[in-house]
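Hi all, long-time lurker, first post. I run a small reading group and we've been trying to get comfortable going from sequence to structure in the token notation. Rather than ask abstract questions, I figured I'd post a concrete chain and ask someone more experienced to write out its structure so we can walk through it together at our next meeting. Sequence below, copied exactly:
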Amino acid sequence: MDSCGQQDEPVQQSVPQFATTQWSLVLEAGGEDSGSKQALAELCQAYWYPVYAYVRRRVSESHEAQDLTQEFFTRLLEMHSIENADPSRGRLQ
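-- Answer (accepted) --
Happy to help. Here is the structure in token form:
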């Protein structure tokens, strides 16, 4: 399992849905204190499969969908999107 909670094979869920945004977790993940890494891991784990399922419906190969999902999380981290998340702007989706 990597830092964003990706498993070798995604755990199958009956209906892939985005979790209700837990702003306390998002804000914690964007911080720089000791709990931010754990919060980031929980956030990535909660969103990995729904993002993968969304991508998988649009590409034909599962490994390509996994790569694109991982790229999404990489860019999310590189662009500091978590740190800039604002609850007043709505859901994190």
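A couple of things your group might point at:
Residues 37-81 form one domain.
The mean pLDDT is 80.
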